[in-house]
Amino acid sequence: MEFLLLPGALAFFAMLPLLLLLKLTFSWWVSPVLKHLKLQRCGFGGPPPSFPLGNIPEMKKKNSVSSSLGSSKHTHDIHSSVFPYFSRWQNSHGKVFIYWLGTEPFLYIADPEFLKKMSTEVLAKKWGKPRVFRHDRDPMFGNGLVMVEGNEWVRHRHVIAPAFSPLNLKAMASMMTESTNQMIDRWIAQINSGNPEIDVEKEVVETAGEIIAKTSFGMKGKYAKEVSEKLRALQMTLFKTTRYVGVPFGKCFNVKKTQEARKLGKQIDKILLSVIESRMKSIKRETQEDLLGLLLQGNRHADGKLGKTFTTRDLLDECKTFFFAGHETTALAISWTLLLLAMHEDWQIQLREEIREVVGDPKELDINVLAGLRKMKWVMNEVLRLYPTAPNVQRQAREDIKVDNLTVPNGTNMWIDVVGMHHDPALWGKDVNEFRPERFMNDVNGGCNHKMGYLPFGFGGRMCVGRNLSFMEYKIVLTLLLSRFSFRVSPGYDHSPSIMLSLRPTHGLQLIVHPLS
Ligand code: HEM
């Protein structure tokens, strides 16, 4: 019997490399070509891709050409500098077209009407997230809420959303004031030493990292700082390199960085797992009011046992997700705000007056009054319009989607260009690139002529779950900073916003900071 099988088995092993080659040729060449033909038949145009890089060479070329907007030219007209390739392709292919990251087709969307029609066709739980990004960002988000799909997403969102209710968030205010006051002390010391130029982006991002480490997993002091630094190092390792997402063997271009990210990811998981496990052991005494505490309390069966909805791995992925989705987006919103207020002293004065009227003495900050900071909310909305810190929203079709006479085929990735829509004069009018917070005075959409044209927190059922937390942090940090300091743009500041997952200032954000008497 064995002898009879042997020639067959040998033939199989001899064929193995050929089978593998056929499989790879199909997935990386035949299948993308078929997809391309299908998309063309569906009526979508776009820049012609090459194999195996897709349109990446053109994207990289344009990236290197785009440079600083010039220190004297603090223009808010940033779309063509942060996404030069999209801005160019829009001119020749309109506001909806196909481009390719490696062998993965992406539908580019900067047309709110198209987006509206598509999103009325698809339930939140039926949207996918691009598989190439899920894979690429696995060390950061794992299967946390940002990436999870289908019924699993419903389950996660159902448990997580209540943790972000305004009532629960109030308990976190003291963690925010504590870290902000420590930052203020550092600034005072630096100014007293004769150096009033502060890189507010570096400072605020660091402080927000500590805040989220406290509010997410209840870490304190030095420990919060250490974990937050490790998590940030992981993000830098993943994003500060030339990346070939969607390209076959793309990770091989960066073996060292990929290994480094994996190593850091494991270290972080180890630290967070030990925190989660020790918190689980003391579950009966669990009174901590951070997000992990709230999830643990919601994760108990009626008999008090753990694991109703989340496994330890789920909890770990969610804690990391809160960190990565929450700290930089909020910190950068605060940093861009400080720049815009430094450029528009009138608004700095108006906000300071509002703080005086609504909050009174910031040393006794009563967070119940924060809702009264109306002008500050207009400023936040306007900053997130001009500088949306989450510069795009992504989806993947899990079924064919009909939009008028076009079909978006199952599996198509979508890249919704938030920066593009927020800077589109057809949606906002001639003053689109001006800082005018008052446009939000009587209109939550800031006068945009389409309600899906303003998407700083995404859209539909998957809209940002942490936005209430970010509103609170934004108001607390700004209240404390504006009560203590005035801000001017430093001559050393080079205005060059760029994308590194979030929309950030490439060379930091240097302001001249003066203590108020
Ligand atoms: C200014 C601050 C923030 C901005 C601009 C922002 C923006 C966004 C955007 C654009 C999305 C994608 C929505 C979509 O796909 O339609 C999102 C999702 C998400 N955000 Fe935020 N975010 C901010 C703060 C936060 C904070 C503070 C947290 C948590 C601590 C957080 C946690 C999340 C999570 C977990 C999701 C995934 C929601 C889901 O898919 O169900 N975000 N955010």
UniProtKB/TrEMBL annotation:
One of its GO terms (cellular component) is membrane. It is a single-pass membrane protein. InterPro entries: Cyt_P450, Cyt_P450_CS, Cyt_P450_E_grp-I, Cyt_P450_sf, Cytochrome_P450_Monooxygen. It comes from the Eukaryota. It holds the Pfam family p450. Keywords: Heme, Iron, Membrane, Metal-binding, Monooxygenase, Oxidoreductase, Transmembrane, Transmembrane helix. Belongs to the cytochrome P450 family. This is Cytochrome P450. It comes from Psophocarpus tetragonolobus (Winged bean). The lineage of its organism: Eukaryota, Viridiplantae, Streptophyta, Embryophyta, Tracheophyta.
